[in-house]
């Protein structure tokens, strides 16, 4: 949970989003977050909601675009192999193991070694935590 909060704080800081509107602060009329100081005042009515929402959209687009295709490399089951997790178009496809002597030059070659799995909310949560580290 702490990693998710830190991730959200970084996004708020980068895109000048309001901590109150991002649920980093609740039960307050105006934000007063100790690490995010660049809120432009949407919570006080000092900023046009359309402008704020445009920055929110930009933040969402950044997150989605950064997470479309990803290969996470890990230690294998023994010293002679590597393990991997494959994510394509933001969807978890599965995991696999590759002998270290294999020459992989393109991510499509990983599909031969892939142990297909179903994507679900629990997997997405686990992967999010790994990626935040």
Short précis:
The protein has 133 residues and is α+β, with helices and mostly antiparallel strands. The protein has helices spanning 2-15, 49-66, 121-132; strands at residues 70-75, 81-88, 91-99, 114-116.
Characterization of the model:
This protein has 133 residues and is of the alpha+beta class. It has helices at residues 2-15, 49-66, 121-132; strands spanning 70-75, 81-88, 91-99, 114-116. The protein is built from 3 helices and 4 strands. The radius of gyration is 20 Å and the shape is elongated. The protein has a 4-stranded antiparallel β-sheet, with no helix packed on it.
* Portion in helices: 25-40%
Shape label:
elongated
Radius of gyration, in Å, reads: 20 Å
The class by helix and strand makeup works out as: alpha+beta
Number of helices: 3
Q: β content, as a range? A: 15-25%
Instruction: Report on the biggest sheet.
Output: 4 strands, antiparallel
- The total of beta strands comes to 4
Q: What value does the average pLDDT take?
A: 85
Show unreliable segments: none
Strand and helix order: HHEEEEH
Strand order of the largest sheet: 1-2-3-4
């Amino acid at each position: 949970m702490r990693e998710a909060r830190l991730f959200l704080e970084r996004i708020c800081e980068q895109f000048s989003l309001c901590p109150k509107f991002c649920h980093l602060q609740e039960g307050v009329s105006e934000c007063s977050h100790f690490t995010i100081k660049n809120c432009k005042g949407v919570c006080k009515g000092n900023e046009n909601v359309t402008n704020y929402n445009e920055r929110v959209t930009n933040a969402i687009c950044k997150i989605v675009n950064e997470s479309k295709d990803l290969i996470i490399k890990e230690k294998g089951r023994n010293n002679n192999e590597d393990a991997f997790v494959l994510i394509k178009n933001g969807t978890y496809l599965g995991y696999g193991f590759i002998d270290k002597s294999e020459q992989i030059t393109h991510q499509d070659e990983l599909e031969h070694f892939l142990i297909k799995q179903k994507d679900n909310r629990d997997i997405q949560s686990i992967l999010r935590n790994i990626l935040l580290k």
